[in-house]
Amino acid sequence: MPFLIDSDVLIDVSRGKDNAIEFVDALTEPFAISQVTALELIVGARDKRDTAMIDAFLSLYSIVPLTESIGVLSFRLLKNYAKSHGLHVFGALIAATAIETASTLITRNRRHYQMITSLRVQIPNY
Fold this sequence. Notes:
By secondary structure, the chain is α/β, with parallel strands linked by helices. It has a single domain, classed as Rossmann fold, CATH 3.40.50.1010. It has seven helices and five strands; from the N terminus they run βααβααβααβαβ. The chain has helices at 7-14, 18-25, 35-43, 48-58, 68-85, 89-100, 110-113; strands spanning 3-5, 31-34, 63-64, 104-106, 120-122. Helix 1 crosses helix 2 and helix 5 (68-85) crosses helix 6 (89-100). It is globular.
């Protein structure tokens, strides 16, 4: 899987931001999202109707499930970067998912991930 799309980009897509939609539509390589991103989008739902819309939206994407190896790697990332760089649990899980699937993480949050040298990051141009 060449690309893993971070929550911030998918939130922009789900909110109908044209530039984000165009960016994702223009990707020529396969992409997926982390199960954590799916969880974050569901948590952000305002009500049951919104939850149903987000669930339908998520059905359009390939979702990478959390695995034991992703959990182990995210634990190591947190030990290394939580205190020194402010890495949070969800960020560590998303970064670990990208690393474990040999994907480039597409995110607008360079600051959240810049210290993880084994992670390939692409900042969208929108």
